Amino acid sequence: MEPSNNSNTCAGCRNEINNMEFMDCCECKLRYDIFCVNISSNNFYLMEHVYKSTWKCPECCCKQLKTDNTNTPARPADKISNLGRSLSQKQSSCPKTLPKTLAKQNTSPDVMNVTLRKHNSQLKSTTNCREACFNEGTLRGIIKEELAAALKSSFKDLFANQLKNIQGEISDLKVSFGFFNDQFENFKKRSDEKDALINQLRSDNTKLQQNVTDLTTRLCIVEQNMRENNVEINGLPEDKSENLVQTLQNIAKVTSCDLGDNDIMQVTRVAKLHKENNRPRTVIAKLRSPRQRDNLLAAVGFFNKKHPTDKLNTNHLGIGGNKVPIYVSEHLCPTGKHLHAATRKLAKELSYNFVWIRNGRIFVRKDIYSKPIYIRNEDSLKLIKPSDIIV
After folding, report:
1. For 313, phi and psi rounded to 5 degrees?
2. Which ranges carry the FP protein C-terminal domain (predicted)?
3. The model's pTM
């Protein structure tokens, strides 16, 4: 049974060929896969196209004669032997010119009647196969050299392009760094200018603060000088029909102070700083001179020392109701009042026994054996130290 002529079916194993690894016989035109004809994949891809086009399948090779057919009944044996020797000599001396030599030898008609079949096709195919598969190691070396040369050229071009790109990027980076460096230098210059300006402003601010403090102190002194004839009375109950001049004279009478009508310039109440406070409004009395003020303050102080359990209060003035203490002191400016309150608070916390005012100045002393401390401003409060506390 002849094999199918299907071009995709192997004539040997009858399996379908699904790849390009196959051989077509030049004689019978049948197709074989390389496994059936005992050809490796490496040798298949190393074969030349000429060899593949002249390849014969094993079946066609078996049909070909293995020797010549000179020994036939139509030719004598001695001539056949002589012809065989002659052919052997000719082939050994010049195998490629054998047909021409035989054409020139025209000695006998018997010899010319000999039919010579071509038996070198198998030798040619074997030679082509050997030439195609001549030396795998040499071919690998050639391929390696070619690949190395190609890769070297490719890598050289690639590296050149990459190096060119890198150089371009480096140039761009240099430009960018130059720009940033200029910006940084400008920023640094501006920052130095700002620092110098800030330092100058700080110095000016310090000077201005000192000037403000000095001016505030001077203003406080001026305001205090304007109040040098005044006395401040706290705790005196309010009454719509009150006579503050008469009340002030009663205070002078109780404390044994000589104070006439001509010594009192003005007596009035001032508005509250905090309206929600239930304490009565403060009374400000302006006397004729600071001496009259000092006499009245000294008389009140002496009276309170003389009567420590019954200090000056509303009962002494003939005002009915609950006994309310009455305080008579110098009339301080707002800054002095604030400083006086802070001094009293700190002195109470640190157990200082004496806080008093003399001519608008605030003094503090821990006990009768300590030196008085003049509180000029809030910074002077640091002079009141807790280490001075007697344990």
Report:
1. -145, -175
2. 334-384
3. 0.49
Structure tokens at 331: 């009339």
How do beta strands 327-330 and 354-358 pair?
unpaired
Query: Which alpha helices (DSSP H) does the chain contain, by range?
Result: 41-46, 49-53, 58-63, 77-93, 98-104, 109-112, 121-132, 136-226, 244-254, 290-306, 334-349
Q: Give, in order, the Cα–Cα distances in Å from 205 to each of 199, 213, 218, 379.
A: 10, 12, 19, 18
| Nearest Cα residue to 64 out of 116, 13, 113, 117 | 117
Q: Which amino acid is at 148?
A: A
Q: Residue written as tokens 């002191």?
A: 329
* 20 vs 114, higher pLDDT: 20
* Paired strand residues for 286: 230, 266
Tokens of 390: 């007697």
HSE toward the beta carbon, residue 8, CA cutoff 13 A: 3
Angle between helices 136-226 and 334-349 (to 10 degrees): 110
Question: 373 Cβ partners below 8 Å, 6+ apart?
Answer: 363, 364, 365, 380, 383, 384
- CATH superfamily entry for domain 229-331: L1 transposable element, RRM domain (3.30.70.1820)
pLDDT of residue 154: 81
- The residue written with tokens 């005992």 in the block is 38
- Say which residue, 130 or 155, is predicted with more confidence: 155
| The two three-digit tokens of residue 19, written as one number | 């790849």
Core vs surface per residue 266-280: b (16+ CB within 10 A) or e: ebeeeeeeeeeeeeb
Least confident of 49-53, 187-191, 235-239, 295-299: 49-53
Residue 33: partners with Cβ closer than 8 Å, 6 or more residues away? 10, 12, 13, 15, 17, 21, 22, 23
